[in-house]
Amino acid sequence: MQRLSGKVAVVTGAGRGQGRSHAVHLADEGADIIALDICAEIETNHYPLASRDDLDETVALVEKSGRRVISAVVDVRDRVSLKKAIDDAVAELGGLHVVVANAGICPLGNEVPARGFIDAFDVDFVGVVNTVGVSFDHLRAGASIIVTGSIAGLVPQKDLATGGGPQGPGGAGYGLAKKMLREYTKGLALTLAPEQIRINTVHPSNVNTGMLHNLPMYRTFRPDLPAPTREDAEIVFPLLQAMPVPWIEPEDVSHLVVFLASDESRYVTGQQLFVDAGAGLKLGL
């Protein structure tokens, strides 16, 4: 339908998972893409992050849609490098209309050191603030900012990691970051509304990506087993959602991202939108 024809979108965490899906779906609807990813490991995060090859594959998929794409290896915690990457890409592509602040990590487990709290919070909250901050001067009326939240981050903080639970310090940092994103986006939405710049947060449930399918996450869902397999975790994954599904797919989130990026949602701002198969309802959110 080319709902995003003429728009340029930046996507962080674009190397794989939700970020790749968002970049490809935005391109399919006509947007040119700035695809950013760290393409490196973070020591406290005990599952593999995207590689340069992953980011190159995202680029190839966007180009298959016939759209322009510029990629850069950058850490969203590094505001100076992030600004340069976005400024350079915007200068080449001719503008910026959509910001998808998606990069995130979830370093779970009691073996994660206290540094894991800092790393998770810095990527998942400070990284969003940095992405929005360095993008802001390029945005004009009609622009849309879309932030990736999480229903897991809306669990009461006292239930996350404070008593040596399976989430560990990284889970506590992740949860706090996602909680603070709610208030950040609501406050910024009120501030930017007179300029007709919108910001919304999308809260997924379990998503079928590498952040879900790893041993630390399996142990969180199956603390009764020392080394649970994917099959062990899949037995209990559906318990989180009201609908009888273990997870949603990245494209389920991307469909909402495309809507929020398009002019169809021109009066939607400050919203906390759930793509969660009813998980939030079960948690009483």
Put the structure in a nutshell.
By secondary structure, the protein is an alpha/beta fold. It is 41% helix and 13% strand. It has a single domain (8-211, 250-275), classed as Rossmann fold, CATH 3.40.50.720.
Describe the structure in your own words:
- The protein has 285 residues and is α/β, with parallel strands linked by helices.
- The protein has one domain (8-211, 250-275): NAD(P)-binding Rossmann-like Domain (Rossmann fold).
- The chain has helices at 17-28, 52-64, 79-93, 115-135, 168-192, 215-221, 230-236, 250-261, 279-282, and strands at residues 8-12, 32-37, 69-73, 98-101, 144-148, 198-204, 272-275.
- The chain has a 7-stranded parallel sheet, with helices on both faces.
- Helix 5 links the parallel strand 5 (144-148) and strand 6.
- The longest helix has 25 residues, at 168-192.
What is the CATH topology classification name? Rossmann fold
Radius of gyration from the CA trace?
18 Å
Decide which structural class fits the backbone: alpha/beta
Work out the strand percent.
5-15%
Briefly, what CATH class? Answer: Alpha Beta
Q: Give the terminus-to-terminus CA distance.
A: 34 Å
Poorly predicted runs are none
Number of β-strand runs: 7
List the total number of helices.
9
Helix content: 40-55%
What series of H and E elements makes up the topology? Answer: EHEHEHEHEHEHHHEH
The CATH superfamily name is: NAD(P)-binding Rossmann-like Domain
Oligomer: single chain
In spatial order, strands of the major sheet run 3-2-1-4-5-6-7
Q: Please outline the major beta sheet.
A: 7 strands, parallel
Number of domains: 1
What gross morphology would you assign? globular
Please identify, by name, the CATH architecture.
3-Layer(aba) Sandwich
Mean of all residue-level pLDDT scores: 95
Protein name: Mycofactocin-coupled SDR family oxidoreductase
Pfam families: adh_short_C2
Family: Belongs to the short-chain dehydrogenases/reductases (SDR) family.
Organism: Mycobacterium vicinigordonae
